[in-house]
Amino acid sequence: MKLYVYIIRRVLLLIPVIIGVTLITFYLSHLNIGLLVTEYEGKIHTYAQRVIVMKELHLNGPVWAQYLYYLGALFTGKWGFVSPGDIDPGVPVFTEFLKRFPPTAELALLATLLILVMGLPLGVLSAVRKDRATDHATRLGAMAAVSIPSFWLGLLVLNFMLAPTVSFLPHWLVLYGNGQLNWSVYGYWHGKIAPFVSPTGGLSQPTGFLLIDTLVYGDFPAFFNALWYVFWPSLVVALTTFGVIIRFMRSSMLENLGQDYVRTARSKGVPEQFVIKKHARRNALGSSTTVMGLIFASLLSGVVVTEIVFSRPGMGTWLYQAAYNNDMVSVMATTFVFTVVIVAANLIVDIMYSYLDPRVRLE
Amino acid sequence: MTTESVGSEFSRALKKRLESSKRSFYFLTRSPLATIGLAIVIFYVILAIIGPRLAGGNPSVMTAYPIYHGQPIIFNPIPPFEYAKFPLGTTIGGYSIYEGVLKGARVDLELASIIVFSGALIGTVLGSIAGYKGGALGEAIMRGTDIFLSLPYIVLAVAFLTVFGRYESVMIESLILIWWPTYTRIVRGQVLSVREQKYVEASVAAGSSSLRTVIKHIIPNSIYPIFVQISLDFGNVILTLASLFYLGFTFAGPGFAEWGNLLSRATSAGTGGAALESYPWAVTIPGLVILIFVLALNLFGDGLRDVLDPRMRR
Amino acid sequence: MNKLVGEALVVKDLKTQFFIYDGVVKSLEDVSFVLKKGEVLGIVGETGCGKSVTAYSIMRLIPDPPGRIISGQIKMGDYDLIKGIDQEVDIILKKRPKIRHHNKIIKKNEYLYNKIRGRYISMIFQEPMAALNPVFTVEDQIVESLYLHSKTKILRVIKSASEHISDLQSFKDKGGITSELSGEIGAELQKIKIQKKGFESEEKHLEMLIDEATKYLAKKDKYDEMLKESIEVDSLEGTLFGNVSEEERARILKVLSKEAKKSHLMGLTKRLKKKNPDPVISEARREAFGLLESVNIPNAFQILKNYPHELSGGMLQRVVIAIALSNDPQILIADEPTTALDVTIQAQILELLRDLRKNRGTSIILITHDLGVIAEMCDRVAVMYAGNVVETAPAIELFHNPKHPYTIGLLQSIPRIDDPTKKLNIIRGTVPNLIKPPTGCRFNPRCQFAFDRCIVEIPPTIETSDGHTVACHLFSGKEVR
């Protein structure tokens, strides 16, 4: 099967999952009149007004019609408004989402990168040195890292790496982080998105991704500053998640090293380092990518917690604040976004898998 | 078939399985890390049983001592070790860490047990159905696992607690909702592979009912992977519970004896730095308590997996 | 090594053991046999008798841990392939055996062995479905083997083709006409013609050769340099197998290992995928194409691009054979090559092996439990039982005049269609546990002729007639070897 046919099939298989997820969020929203009525919050005073709004929002119709209407609103970006009492009251939820998404995406992507960069080689190493000191140390270390409560590790890292008074790091390095843009010590935005000061003087964030924006303007000190502040939380997320990858890569490598084709490769006279690097690792990588999809849910949970601990103004902090303020609309929006991200991540993982292992496309 | 005969059938099959596993147990004891893990887990279980009695008072609520010996503890958190009453010191607000750790053991283990075991039970039942009956129902169940596996657990729990209100039952239900699909997948996989085995085919051909087949062959065969998964999930549930409580998504007051809550008392969110500087014990001790327990569970689960996976055994 | 008559491989007192949890499995105990040049030696025996372990020991493919070759000699010409094997590990035999590996020595020996595997000795396996890496194309896996051992040959062929073309050009410029092909390219084209795969195939080969040659000419200096280096490396490697002092050997190994790191094996897949590959790659591809044709694969050029899962079992076994043949090895070890295949395919594969011996003069060790295959294919047979070679004889002699009680039992346990009245004799009992093998002759618990001496004394190997040896006390007292 051609790769694109496989991708299309895989995307089509997502439809039931998306429907299921939206049914859950619809159900949760519906319980509290939810998402759509808040658009009119503060504007409904009389019964007559209420009837009009109910009709306008299709709330009088049968449940399936309401669900369809809900879906329509969801996919056209009509996500309601942030409720009063929250940090940005009255702002459309979708706008808020656009603002909140980049910091979280930066964190999650960097964490994923760190997990892969740390986890895969360690898993290979652990398998190659099976039952030797390196193997035991790696496994124990990985297991210990997975067992640390992420908020606690976040707290420790936050204080020991980023707070000048407690930090182990040399003072200049800690201060480096908050030198350039004069951001606070404990998280650089104080729960607000830091406006990026462009060289021309205006406040501008072309993409919202701080790591990209700073580069766009060629402001390297600011870039490294932003990197510094996204590195530590992503390290926390990566450390508390990457044990699974190590474990899986290890067992996958061991399994593949015992396969017949590895024996064939050796019988050809392929040097051992290439037996490992070319033959076994390539196969082990394929099956390990599937695990990446499975751990993405726990990775995002870690992202949420870490974000709150580091007070990064992303989706996690938004969820936290919204839940505190009983801002149902924002809570539903974040839930939906997180779920979609996980579904999308799984799709990407599947596509990567089919790229890495040509047998998958056959199914 | 009557329930009684099903029960005895089940216990006989399980017994057979356990007898054949003496070798496995022997291997487990050969792995020092897994043994240490098991010992620590047992220690925590004992702690959960006798802990609250040792600490005294309400078994799930920590008592606050904002003032002790005329000194307001909140403003004077100097080395607390001089007070015999607080052997591990106090947190902001004067909660005894010693008391919190002991009582928290029961609270956490209880909550996690309910969540993990219900999840495992639901997952096993659904997995057996999906694997054995297959068809549209099985397909629907498996798509369900897909959906619930794509929900980030902290987010779903927070959403539930916001929508349905902050109750213990809501938290437990929302976490069960997250933790069943793994079991469904494991059991279904086992069912599909076991069903192909000749001896199962033979017993079906001999007229064994499907319930009987499931109980006699399939569940005993999947019991080990389930066991491994439970030991690994238990740690994750503890971590998630602690995170939720730490972030303040609780169903109880500030004195609720839960490890995450204890940590949150120690740092009073946002002042982590100050807390670490002036009373580091309050931040480190509860964290270490959680870390050691989860690590022990993971060591045990991992050791068990290695022992039970014949490919890994040598 | 160049004599046509003589011994291709001499295995002497080979001892291989597996150190597992329950104890030491003494898989091979003093296995000795000789493989003559150009012959097919069959090794036959029950499952678990050590046939495959023998093959893997010769290839040094015993998984370690738990397995180890303890001692013995595997001589290819004058060179002992497992020289210094006892220095690789310290075995501490306590209640549970403990093995301490000396990784430096192992690495050194491994390095040397990688030059032998695939180059001098190749192997084909039982399960063709699993023997190829599922994520690489067929082409990739053949080219890899060529690339490891035959780089010089590849470069030489292109160089000769390019020289030929430039000669041709200058000759034409002077107004001459030629169709003479000279040197390596002549030999290559001769080889293609001999295969008789039809005009289309010949055209394809020629087209590829010309293409390579033009590319070679475009960057002549670079490739000439490459060829020079490659020849140097080859000659260095050659010296390693001769008599060199330890210091000299260490020095050469250092140079070579540096060279090996440059082997660019990782980039091979990518280079093969390129639209316009460099001449080395495309000659390797042409060579692979020729190899597939030589093992009778139809549509060979298309098959090159396929992944293993897209081919059938018989096809895959041909590919595996093509890989094994890629560097023209002197010895081919076939470990039950037909067991996993259909009967019709089996016959084809056996036919292929027979042709191969005829055309290339390769010595073959054929491991099987199928006496029918032995009868059809082999010149000589070694019968193994529980880690011992119990009898060796020319194939016909063995079938007509078996000596060892085990061989007799084995031959009698074959159902005979020509004699349906005959009752099948089975050998009683099972293969012994090799952790605690029986004392004396390992066959004694199952042997109907066993007497006191069998339980005490290990039987010596006795030559009863020319080329027929047997290890049994029933025949001792006669002439001792």
Annotation, overall tally of beta strands of chain A: 0
| Fraction in beta strands of chain C | 15-25%
Could you tell me the number of beta strands of chain C? 14
The main pleated sheet of chain C reads as: 8 strands, mixed
- What spatial form of chain A do the alpha-carbon principal axes imply? globular
Q: State mean pLDDT of chain C (0 to 100 scale).
A: 81
Largest interface in this structure: A-B, 60 and 51 residues
Report the radius of gyration of chain A as a whole number of Å. Answer: 24 Å
Q: Looking at the structure, what is the overall shape of chain C?
A: globular
Gyration radius of chain C (Cα, Å) is 25 Å
* Oligomer category: heterotrimer
Intertermini distance of chain C: 26 Å
Ranges of chain A where pLDDT stays below 50 over 5 or more residues in a row are 175-204
Structural notes for this entry:
The complex is a heterotrimer of chains A (363), B (314) and C (481). With 363 residues, chain A is an all-alpha fold. Chain A has helices at 3-31, 47-56, 63-75, 93-128, 133-147, 150-162, 171-179, 210-216, 220-241, 243-257, 260-267, 272-309, 315-324, 328-356. Chain A is 70% helix and 0% strand. The model of chain A is unreliable at 175-204 (pLDDT under 50). Chain B has 314 residues and is an all-alpha fold. Chain B has one domain (30-74, 91-313): MetI-like fold (Orthogonal Bundle), CATH 1.10.3720. In chain B, a hairpin with a 2-residue loop joins strand 1 and strand 2. Chain B is elongated, with a radius of gyration of 23 Å. With 481 residues, chain C is of the alpha/beta class. Chains in contact: A-B, A-C. At the A-B interface, helix 1, helix 5, helix 6, helix 10 and helix 12 of A face helix 5, helix 6, helix 10, helix 11 and helix 12 of B.
